[in-house]
Amino acid sequence: MTSGAVPNIYYDVEMMEREVAQNHHRDVIGGLWEEIGKLQFEFLRANGLAPTSRLIDIGCGCLRGGIYFVDYLDPGNYFGMDISEELLNAGYDVELRDRCLQEKLPRANLIADGEFQFAKFPVTFDFGIAQSIFSHLPAEHIRLCLSRLAPRMEPGGILFGTFFLVPDDHPSDRPFEHPQGVQTFEQKDPFHYRFGQVRALCDGLPWQPVLIGDWGHPRDQQMVRFRFLAS
């Protein structure tokens, strides 16, 4: 990853430790715990996710969506990566424990890593989801994620990723006001992109992006489907 200032608050380890210690893990990831957790689960299930699928949840945090995926998927078929070990611990030791789901998920399936080193997982994936992570990252980080995920995907595998998208003619030096009141930016978190920029992120990589658009996200994040094109 590039050096310099960190792209978002999730790289602030001390802050994250404080928030999780105060049992604020649901709030620090943006709240809307049940609404967005259920939304992403129902979306993936409607788009082909089956109990036998192996799913990688990128930026899984404290398992807002993970609690539903773990319950639905066959034991051991959910995998999560997040930059914060504290959030992963809260997801496993609080959220999964409270639902008696820890037996369905080896703790080793959750990896804290800020470099998208998917090779740390000993499996390949049929599905991936990156819900509300690309909206917090600059282009070079997203490109790195796509590059490092590709070798771990099964032929025809699909990654679903959400973005704040803006019109092609939106000036690059101006923030964008989304209908739900979120303000996004070209060069700082929360980041927005034009769909042409999303396509460019896939140049030279075995991904075919397709804009799905509105999928019911309460903060206007739009959905993009990336299909893995095996060579």
- Give the full name of the CATH homologous superfamily: Vaccinia Virus protein VP39
**Mean pLDDT, as a whole number?**
92
CATH class: Alpha Beta
* Class by SSE composition: alpha/beta
What's the overall geometry? globular
Number of domains: 1
Radius of gyration: 17 Å
The percent of residues in helical segments reads 25-40%
Strand content: 15-25%
Largest sheet, strands/sense/barrel: 8 strands, mixed
Contiguous helical run count: 7
Low-confidence stretches: none
The CATH architecture is 3-Layer(aba) Sandwich
CATH topology: Rossmann fold
How many strands in all? 10
Q: How far apart lie the N and C ends?
A: 26 Å
Order of helices and strands: HHHEHEHEEHEEEEHEE
Task: Outline the structure in words.
With 231 residues, this protein is α/β, with parallel strands linked by helices. It has one domain: Rossmann fold, CATH 3.40.50.150. The chain is 29% helix and 22% strand. It has seven helices and ten strands. The chain has helices at residues 13-21, 25-28, 33-46, 66-72, 85-98, 139-149, 195-201; strands at residues 55-58, 78-82, 110-112, 125-130, 153-165, 176-177, 183-184, 192-193, 207-213, 222-228. Strands 1, 2, 3, 4, 5, 8, 9 and 10 form an eight-stranded mixed β-sheet that branches. It is globular and about 50 Å long. 42% of the residues are buried.
Give a brief outline of the structure.
This protein has seven helices and ten strands. It is α/β, with parallel strands linked by helices and 231 residues long.
Features:
alpha/beta; globular; two-stranded antiparallel ribbon; about 30% helix; 10 strands; single chain; 7 helices; Rossmann fold
